[in-house]
Amino acid sequence: MTRTAEIIGVGSYLPEGRITNADLERMVDTSDEWIVTRTGIRERPIADEGQATSDLAIRAGQAALAVAGVAPEDVDLLIMATSTPDMVFPSTGCLTQAGLGLSCPAFDVNAACTGFIYALQTATSAIESGRADTVLLIGADTLTRFVDFTDRTTCILFGDGAGAVVLRAAESGGVRGIALGADGKRGSMLYVPAGGSAMPASAETVANREHYIRMNGNEVFKFAVRVIPETTNAALAQSGVDVGDLAWLIPHQANQRILDTIAERLGVSHERVFSNVANTANTSAASIPLALDDLYTSGRLAAGDLLALVGFGAGLTWGAAVVEWTKTTPGKEA
Ligand code: UT7
Q1: What residues does ligand 1 touch, defined as CB less than 6 Å away?
Q2: CATH number assigned to the domain comprising residue 264
Q3: CA angle at residue 234 from 178 to 68, to 5 degrees?
Q4: Would residue 329 count as lying in a domain?
């Protein structure tokens, strides 16, 4: 009998604080007009001072478990996709496991903004192989903690948030195919120089602002608009799904211009390309499950819908998954 991994619950959490374009105009030499035209972003959720990545993850995890109707003791594995852990160790997965009252194994996957797709492959493999029946997968990041708010080229882009899905073994539906890629030679296009073993944090690294994100925005943009169509097509081919049959293309939310370009290159109409980048900005590993939760709670997903989820980011990494949605729309349960 075939074993597939279907999504039986989805949840998310955005902190209440917001950084608006007007706030940024007061911090750096920029304008609302420039930011909206070049990125489509209007505001970014920002974690409260006392909130770490695990705090956001716990809220998203609770919501997804409630939607799935799964009790903590029934979760076999917790996978956390994050590149902004609470601390070097213990893992944010372990901190979240404790916060959720779970007793299963827990660990982190770091593939930056592609983290959710990488972790989805790990979760799906665990289920398909029979090593787990129920997996909680959370994408959570607090990138604003790693943003240099004196650097206008990066501080406009990022926000904080968490999204989660519960996956369970099924006989059909769910994850149909996943394509992943990486090119470590181009790691320096998007990185945080200090704070790891290569350049431990010191008074000097802090003074040089080396514990913040550095990015070659132009190159990352070109990479994104090339790789997203390629990896989406690879996942579609693996799944035997035609691009025209997709109900939704759900890309990592980084820049509205990237979303518009890939829609054109893939031949998907703009109405079928999910976008909430104006109000959530780039929440890294959280952006795809946040999008799924937005679509689900607003009643825009129906059982049988075919979805393509696609991410790209630091590493460089990229990946896409084709998922057959099997959950009934809220309020339309039998
Ligand atoms: O998950 C992956 C994360 N990263 C990304 O997705 C980033 C992808 N890249 C991008 O989204 C875009 O490259 C940016 C939004 C970062 C930049 O947009 P761009 O259209 O590529 O602008 P640019 O870097 O070519 O800069 C154009 C001009 C420059 O001025 P000069 O040299 O032409 O005089 C910049 O200095 O815009 C200037 N600029 C700004 N001006 C006002 C750069 N940032 C700003 C700003 N406000 N915030």
Answers
A1: 30, 34-35, 38-39, 113, 152-153, 156, 215, 217-218, 220-221, 224, 254-255, 282, 313
A2: 3.40.47.10
A3: 30
A4: no
Shared-domain flag, residues 182 and 297: yes
Evaluated on CA atoms 185, 85, 221, 321, the torsion sign reads: positive
Rg (CA), the chain: 19
Of 126, 149, 172, which one is at a domain's C-terminal end?
172
252 noted as active-site residue: yes
Q: Does a structural domain hold residue 52?
A: yes
State whether 216 and 88 are in the same domain.
no
Instruction: Determine the pLDDT at residue 159.
Output: 98
113 is catalytic: yes
Question: Is 270 in the active site?
Answer: no
Q: Which pLDDT tens digit goes with each residue over 22-46?
A: 999 999 999 999 999 999 999 999 9
Q: What domain range includes position 18? A: 4-172
What count of other Cβ atoms lies within 10 Å of the Cβ of residue 197? 6
87 three-state secondary structure: coil
Pair (126, 246) in one structural domain: no
Residue 198 has pLDDT above 80, yes or no: yes
> Any idea how long the chain is?
334
- Residue pair 306/240 in contact (Cβ under 8 Å)? The answer is no
Q: Which of 218, 261, 277, 282 to mutate to test the pocket of ligand 1 (most atoms within 8 A of CB)?
A: 218
pTM of the model: 0.97
Nearest residue (by CA) to ligand 1, atom 25, is: 218
Type of residue at 167: L
Of 113, 155, 211, 255, which residue is the catalytic one? Answer: 113
